[in-house]
Amino acid sequence: MSEALQSTRSPVALLTMVHGALEPILMDYVDRLDPPMAGIVRYHFGWLDDTQPQSGARHRLVPLLYLSAEAAGGAGEHWVAPAVAYTLMGNCALMLDDILDDDRLRRGHPTVWARYGVPFAAQTSASLLGLAYEVLAEQRGPMMAEAARRMSVVVRAGGAAQLRDVELERRVDVTLDEALAVT
Hints:
The protein is built from nine helices and two strands, in the order H-H-H-H-H-E-E-H-H-H-H. It has helices at residues 3-6, 11-30, 35-45, 62-71, 80-100, 112-116, 118-137, 143-169, 176-181, and strands at residues 105-106, 109-110. The two termini are 34 Å apart.
């Protein structure tokens, strides 16, 4: 069994280590975006100032990616590219979800679309998804094509679920089973 699974490392220490390793690499990738989009993403991630909370969604499942890689005996740095790609894809979906749900606040601050407008939020979101695929395409190894394929499946499934959610919001006769199916 790997050291991470046997160790007494606290969850807080694990989160700090994983996020500390990911953050500078994620920032480097975000810097590849056109300057207006990079600024919007920095705002979304809470990187602009100390008064804005850091986006929890930015790293929501990243520790699981690290632990999975470590349990398989190959953590090293192999978990970083999929974690960056997942983070970018997840935040693409989050920006679109805020638009579709008409959410104007996230963690007490205006959402991207509320601050910059729908066109900027939608295009920035699309660029995040493109950047996520770019991250995977730049990696070597037999698993990266499979990671890109699986990410495509997740994106399609998420889009379909989002549309079902929008459809249900327009109806008054939604059953509990229908509501639970889109969560």
